[in-house]
Hints:
Layout: H1 2-8, H2 14-35, H3 45-63, H4 69-92, H5 94-100, E1 105-109, E2 112-113, H6 115-121, H7 125-134, E3 143-148, E4 154-158
Antiparallel strand pairs: 1-2, 1-3, 3-4
Helix pairs in contact: 2-3, 2-4, 3-4, 4-5
Amino acid sequence: MSDLIEIFSLQAGFxxxxxxxxxxxxxxxxxxxxxxxxxxxxxxxxDMLVLVLVADAxxxxxxxDSTSVGDGMIVVATIVAWSVxxxxxxxxxxxxxxxxxxxxxxxxxxxRIVQSGLRSEQITHGExxxxxxxxxxxxxxxxxxxxxxxxxxxSVIKTGEPVSNENSTLSEP
Length: 173
């Protein structure tokens, strides 16, 4: 029983572990947010950050690098709490969402490539064409809009029937 108590007892203080978890979360969040989103896939920056940090914090506590499971649990709880807090806050306060999440970038408008969009996201013409092929697009002429979404994924809307503005997903943010 004393071994079990020793495993879960805190080596560092509760506040120290919360400060460590908070510091690492925000430092990595800012770095990942500034680094761009092209390679993030379908996970948002905050989602990927939580996965990496929780895995690392939990891994250290479980593998013995940390002598206390309790310390690891505090760091994990702090990281998850920040993620939940930011998700809720950005839902209720749209200006915060615009600060925390990148806006979508238009890459093709009415069959024409938007060079400024490619340049701002450092996407080559070849990479754009690859994404269009993956979406089954044979020609730029059939593309009404193509966006790089905030998640890092490409979305393509083909030309077709006109849609009223109130039902359109094309309205600019």
